[in-house]
Design goal:
With about 250 residues, the protein is an alpha+beta fold. It has a domain of about 110 residues. Helices cover about 80% and strands about 10% of the residues. It contains five helices and four strands, in the order αααβαβββα. A four-stranded mixed β-sheet has the order 2-1-3-4. Helix 1 runs antiparallel to helix 5 and helix 2 runs parallel beside helix 4. The radius of gyration is 66 Å and the shape is rod-shaped.
Length: about 250
């Protein structure tokens, strides 16, 4: 086979022509389509990246909001817990104060009732004792005991300190009152009247009042001065003494 340069040249030219035709008809459109698709894909990727970035931002914002909400919830919960605790403390203190007040009132009432009961017992004991002694004296009382009390009252009148005021009172009044459980004898009247006249250097009358409730003895009223030698008066003194003794015992115990 002979080498024909023209043929070879022609083949080369055909090849390049074919390349040109292919490039024109096939490659360029395909490349154009590929470039277009690549551009579209790049745009899509950019949009995707942008959306992804937005999504990440939203996720971060969501996390931030959740964290903020949790913080607010914790703060609010702490506030509620604090308020509840403060209210609990207030209620507890109020309850303690009310209980203390009620306890104080209870003990005050109890103490008052105890004191009243003690007073009742004391009064009952004193009254019972005086009643018993009164009945006993009434049973044993007679004219002889009455006479002894009357004589003792004369001794007291003899030892009586006289001042000018008392003498002036008696002078203006003009009489001495004698309350007696038994009627006085004439001798007793004369003895008492004579003693007073001699003591006060005054003429006075003697006014007698018989009072059985005196039980025995006499009560002599010389103006504002009273000499009580009646059994009733002595029982009253004894009653007062018993009360004083009981109170003194309570204070010392």
């Amino acid at each position: 086979m002979e080498f024909n340069p023209l043929t070879y040249l022609f083949e080369i030219i055909n090849f390049f022509v074919l390349l040109l035709i292919l490039n024109k008809i096939l490659y360029k459109p395909v490349i154009s389509v590929l470039k277009k698709r690549k551009r579209l894909l790049d745009e899509k990727f950019k949009e995707y990246d942008k959306i992804k970035e937005e999504i990440n931002k939203l996720i971060e914002e969501k996390k931030r909001l959740i964290s903020e909400v949790e913080k607010i919830k914790r703060n609010k919960l702490n506030e509620i817990i604090k308020e509840v605790e403060e209210e609990r403390v207030k209620l507890y203190r109020k309850m303690e104060e009310e209980l203390e007040s009620e306890r104080k009132k209870f003990y005050e009432t109890l103490e008052k009732e105890k004191e009243e009961l003690i007073e009742e017992i004391k009064e009952s004991a004193v009254r019972t004792s005086i009643l018993f002694i009164t009945k006993l004296l009434s049973y044993f009382n007679d004219r002889n005991m009455h006479k002894k009390l009357f004589d003792y009252s004369l001794e007291i009148v003899k030892r009586l300190d006289i001042d000018e005021n008392l003498r002036e009172e008696l002078k203006n009044l003009g009489f001495v009152t004698v309350e007696t459980a038994f009627p006085l004898s004439e001798e007793e009247k004369r003895a008492l009247r004579g003693l007073i006249i001699n003591k006060f250097k005054l003429e006075v009358d003697l006014k007698e009042e018989v009072k059985k409730e005196l039980i025995g003895g006499v009560r002599i009223r010389i103006a504002s001065k009273i000499i009580d030698l009646s059994l009733k008066g002595q029982l009253k003194s004894l009653e007062n003494l018993m009360r004083e003794e009981i109170e003194g015992f309570e204070r010392s115990s």
